[in-house]
Fold CoA-binding domain protein.
Amino acid sequence: MSEANLNSLFDPKAVAIIGASGIPGKVGYSVVSNLLDAGYQGRILPVNPKGGEILGLPVVASIAELPPSLDLAVICIPPKYVIDALEALGKLSTRAVIVITAGFKEVGHEGYKLEEQLKEISSRYGMAVLGPNCLGLNNTGPGLNATFAAGTPPKGNIAFFSQSGALCTAILDWALGENIGFSKFVSLGNKAVLDESDMLDYLRDDPETQVILGYVESVEDGQRFARVARDVTPHKPVIMIKSGTTSAGAKAASSHTGAMAGSEQAYGAAFNQAGIIRVRDVAMLFNLAQAFSTQPLPAGPNLAIVTNSGGPGIMAADVTEQSALLMASISAKTVDTLMQALPPFASLYNPIDIIGDADAERYRVTLEAVVKDELVSSILVMLTPTASAEIEKTAQAIIDVTKGCGKPVFACFMGQQRVAPGRRILQEAGIPCYAFPEPAIRSIEAMYKYQLWRTRPAPVEVCYRRDKNRASKVLETARGNGCVEIVEFQAQDLLKAYELPVPQTELARTSDAAVKAAKRIGYPVVLKIASPHISHKSDVGGVRVGLEDEAAVRSAFLDVTSRAARLRKDASITGCLVQSMAPKGSKEVIIGFKRDPQFGALIMFGLGGIYVEVLKDIAFRLAPLSMDDAAEMIREIKSYPLLRGVRGEPPVDFKTIEDILLTMSQLAQDFPDIYEAEFNPVLVNHEGAVVADVRVTLCTGA
C-alpha cells in the first residue's frame, strides 16, 4: 500500500460520506456529526440520492458527482451496494476508503464472495481500504473523527488499532473517563486490505505517536508482521493483546515438537523476538499505555519506594523481588539527608517508611533527596489515607519535586473515596497513580525490560556450512518411495550433510552383521530397530542399550526384530542400527521445529524425557535464529540449572547445543517442504553432544 494513500486515509483534505443521513441514530448521520463535532477543517461531502442538506452541509446526489482524486470516502450503505460504490470511487481515482458496512466474510459464504470482490477492486485501483465491518478511524491531530462511535478522545501521543470494534468503543469510553489522549484510533474490522502490519508500518514514522497499542485476533501474514514490528520496536513501544490463540483443527503431529508447538507458542515467539510487549488483559493495556506515554524509560532496574505505611511498603518490596527490578540501595549521602529531615522512627532504607503521621512536607523533603540519588533508577510513591495524610497537597508535592527529573515516577494512593482527588491531580499532571502497588511495579518492570530490548546489540545471524545437494537427495528418495516420514536410519545422510555430531552408526540387516558392526564400533553399543514405518521405537521395545558382548548383540537383534514384526505387522523391518553408547554423564535434550502456517518454522528446545513429556518445560523461537536467540532459549527453561551443573557436576557444552539449534534453524530455512523435524534425544555432557535420534516429517502435497 502506497504511503500517499495511507496519508490520505489519516489526513484527508476532503471526506465523502457514502450513505450520509439526516436521521439521528443512523450510521451515516453519526459519521457526519462526528466530523463536525471533532472540528474537522477539510471539506465534508455527504452523499445521498435524496439531495438537500444534512447538518447544514449541501448533499451530493451521487458518487459520480464527487470531485476526482478524492482523498477519503466513508461507506455506510447496505452491503449489496458496496461493491458498485467502491467501483465508482475507484474510477474517480479515490485514494482511500473506509468501509464501515458489515455483512462480509463474517456472515458466511456470500459475504466472503463480496469481500473478495472488494479486495480485487482495491488492488486494481490501488485504493487503501480500511474494513469492512469496522467502526472507522479517528485522527485527533486534524480533528478527523470518521467513526460512528460516541465521543472523540482528547489529543495525545497514544495510537490504538483493534480488530474488535466493541473493544474500540470500550477503550474510547475509558479514554474519555480518564482524560487519556490519543493520536490515532483505528478499527481494523475484517482487514480485507489494510491490516495490523500496515498500521505498524505507518505509525513507526508518525511524529504524533509515541506509544502503539493493538488488539488482534489473528495475523494473516505472520512473517511480514514480525518483520515490520522488529523495525518499529527499537523506536516506539508496541503493546498488544492477542486473543484466540488455540490451534483447533491443526495437523496431527508425529513428534513431541509437533504436539507442543501450537499457535499460542508461535505468537509468543513472534512477539518475543519482535520486541512486542504482550499483555493478557485490557487493564494492563491501560496501565502500560499511561506509563509509556507519560514517563521516561528507567536507566536501570533499581526501584526506590517511599511510603507512609510499613505494611504496603513491604508488599511493594515483595512484588519487586519477584520481578526483573531490584530494590535500590540508598546511598550514604541520601541516608544522611533523610536522617536530618525525618523522625527518629522512620526507616531510612528501602522501602523508605516516613511513618503514618507524614504530611505533604515530609513527602516533599524525602522525594527531594531520593530523586537526586544516582543509585535510584525509578520511584514509587505510596500513600495510605491516614488521619495526618494531606492527600491533595502530597500529590502536588510529588508533581513539583519530580517534574523533569528524568526518572520514571509512579504513585500508589491506596483506598478509594478519600484519595480520589489526589489521584486525579496526579493523572492530570501525567503521573500514573494506582490503587495497589502490583500494577505500578509491573508497569515499571515492563518499561525496564523494553529499555533493555531497545538498547541490546543487533542480533547476529549465522549461516552454517552444509551440503544441500546431499540433504536434498534424502528428501527426494523418501518422496520417491511414497514416504512422508523419514526416520533415523534413513536420515543419517541428512545429519551428515549438516555436519551434525552423531554417534558412530551402522545399519545391520542380520544378527551376524550386527555383531561385526559392534566389533568395529567397540563395546558397549546400542541397538535400535530400523523401519521406515516405526518412528516411536520405544513403543515396540525397539531399543537396547549397554550391550557388552557378541552374545548380547545377537540376542538383542533377534528379540528386537521379532518383537517389532509381531507388534507392527504393517511395518517393513530393514534390520537394526548399531550405535556407539552416549558420552558418559550425558543429559538428554530435545531440539525440533514445526512449521506454523502464519509465522513459518517454530524452533523448540527443552530437556528430554519426563521434562518434555510431563512438565512441558520448553522454549520457542521463530527461525531464523540469531546467536542470542539460541543462547536465550537454553537459559529460558526452568530446568536450566540442571544443565549448568548441580552438586559439583560440570556444566554441559552449551556451545555445541547452540550450534545444533542454529543448524536446525538452517535446515528449516533450507527446506520449506519439511513440515516438522526433531532431534530427540540430543545427548550432551561437558565435552560435547551427539544427535542420538532424528525424525523428519514432510509437508503433504508439497
Notes: Confidence is low (pLDDT under 50) at residues 248-254.
